[in-house]
Design brief:
By secondary structure, this protein is mostly helical. About 65% of the residues lie in helices and about 0% in strands.
């Protein structure tokens, strides 16, 4: 197993998509008693703390969901490891390997705060009863679990207890503010989050927790940056700590917040979030009916892609009706599959087919307005339809009036927030254009 030892010691075994990592994970999932998992269990006792960290990480990645008593036993032995990160990873592995009862016993018997916090975090709902634990971070986690399922009448008491423990808990919980914010978001307690953030930001000892809570609020609610950006600026002081800088960067993603508080934030030295811009591509070519017809003639009738479709079909529609073949091409581009091409071609089909096609076109477009991948294109398509898109205003308005962010799947929470902001901006622009065209 020399290759395995070398992969672990070099860090290749925990490098995403590395062939050695893939081979190790495949071997662990294929047979728990095979040579690879057996050797990893042996390496969990290696002298090098780096190797022990790598092994704990790898053993935690076994993905078939079955209990693994041997891995749990190895993890229990490492709960008192000299290396702090090994202890953290071991605490997670104990629970991951299926020894929840053993983890609870270890939590009750051990005193070291790092490993006790990691165990409580891994055990989640199983620690909800530990409100009187001697360690603040464990109490904080227990009360968060309780708060997440508690009836509203119990919220005030839990809120007070969480606030009193927050500062001490943050010594061992790096993301106390984010965790708190996620629970409050699931409970829909928007106004409470704003008041809580103000209290946390107002005290130096809890300012970092407040900044992390602000970020979580901005990720969840559209109004949060507008509400909380002034409070962030007020408590920046002479130097901006990393947590405050991250919160300011996140809040700067909001166009509404930057528009309303731009003067206020201009004097604060921080890095605004980079705004993503779609590439403009090559300059728009000039088509007349002859060149446009030639382009379509070279394409099959059932084509699913057509770069510059608005210019090509626009030139033909300006010159007169489409031929049967051209109309069939436009029909396929419009109705074959959802996506950018459909959003671009739907207004063209309306122009070709006339008002009788309007209900079908709108029924095609409005369900996709909230799609974070292609919603912007559909909003822009409605804008091109102008006053004809008036029946779509309720759908646009519903998207604009959402208080919470549109569910998005991106690599970062800030990136997800930016995608929602882009959807919001496109919907606002579309509604403005439709109303202006109707008034004219």
């Amino acid at each position: 197993m020399k290759w395995l030892d070398e992969a672990v010691s070099a860090g290749d075994a925990t490098t995403a998509a590395h062939p050695a990592r893939i081979a190790i994970l495949d071997a662990m999932n294929a047979a728990r008693t095979g040579p690879v998992p057996v050797r990893l269990l042996q390496l969990s006792r290696a002298d090098d703390p780096f190797v022990r960290r790598e092994v704990m990480d790898l053993l935690s990645c076994a993905g078939d969901g079955r209990p693994w008593p041997e891995a749990a036993e190895a993890a229990l032995a490492r709960l008192t490891d000299p290396d702090e990160e090994v202890r953290r990873l071991a605490a997670y592995l104990v629970v991951r390997a299926g020894s929840r009862d053993a983890a609870l016993r270890a939590l009750a018997s051990l005193t070291e705060p790092v490993v006790r916090t990691a165990l409580a975090d891994s055990l989640r709902g199983s620690v909800a009863h530990l409100h009187d634990d001697p360690l603040a971070s464990v109490r904080f986690l227990a009360r968060l679990e309780t708060l997440g399922v508690a009836p509203p009448r119990q919220w005030p008491a839990l809120d007070r207890a969480l606030f009193s423990d927050a500062r001490a808990a943050a010594r061992h919980l790096d993301d106390a503010g984010e965790r708190w914010g996620r629970v409050l978001y699931r409970l829909g307690r928007e106004r409470h989050v704003y008041a809580l953030a103000a209290r946390l930001l107002g005290a130096p000892g809890t300012r970092d927790i407040g900044a992390d809570l602000v970020r979580e609020a901005c990720h969840g609610w559209r109004a949060a940056p507008v509400e909380l950006l002034p409070r962030l600026v007020r408590h920046c002081g002479r130097g901006i700590c990393p947590a405050m800088a991250r919160a300011l960067t996140t809040a700067s993603i909001s166009e509404a917040a930057m528009h309303r508080h731009g003067v206020l934030i201009a004097a604060v030295p921080f890095t605004p979030y980079p705004k993503a811009r779609r590439p403009s591509g090559s300059p728009t070519p000039s088509y007349d009916s002859t060149t446009a017809a030639a382009v379509l003639q070279a394409k099959p009738v059932d084509t699913g892609r057509l770069r510059r479709a608005p210019e090509i079909f626009g030139a033909l529609l300006d010159a007169g009706p489409l031929t049967f073949r051209q109309a069939a091409q436009l029909y396929n581009l419009t109705f074959k599959r959802p996506g950018r091409m459909q959003a671009v071609c739907a207004p063209l089909w309306l122009r070709h087919a006339g008002p009788t096609a309007l209900p079908r076109i709108l029924a095609l477009m409005t369900p996709h307005l909230g799609d974070y991948v292609m919603g912007e294109y559909y909003a822009e398509g409605l804008a091109r339809m102008g006053r004809h898109a008036m029946p779509a205003l309720p759908s646009l308005t519903a998207l604009i009036d959402r208080r919470t962010r549109v569910p998005v799947n991106d690599s970062t929470r800030d990136g997800e927030m930016l995608l929602d902001e882009c959807l919001l901006a496109a919907a606002i622009d579309a509604r403005r254009t439709i109303l202006a065209d109707t008034a004219a």
